[in-house]
Hints:
This protein is mainly α.
Amino acid sequence: MRIALGVIAATCATPLAIAAAFGALHCFQVGWFRERGWPLVQDSILLYAAFSAPVAFFLTIAAGGPLAHRLAHLGHTGFRRHAMAGIILGATPFILFDGYVIGTNLLLDARPAPDINTVKMALRWAALGAWCGLWSAGAYWVVVIRGREQFRHFPSA
């Protein structure tokens, strides 16, 4: 039961991470968010949250959960290693996709070599994925790994 709650928590943490990041960027008027009104930022949050939740669910089931349990089995129950795993897993889909697009364009000579703006955009997407992965890993860790450690010494009924 705790694992199912952890998967739900990790899936819900990703849209919350996006809302927090976009809300902060709008509040501090950074980049694209400088010229946009709150309703457009809200629509962006909803759109990104709708696309990120299924990805977070899949990554938690396919890689994040098993990796967290393996780390815990090896005795690494602290948050730092789980957070690093979440950051890496969160950024991985974006790095793979951007590498595929840039590599395909270079191999097929469809476009000239990527300019600095393309690389910056790829790094921004990877950073957003890492941010969401950190939140998902934290939610899963709190519910499953930390929760198991806290209640290990209580007698069962």
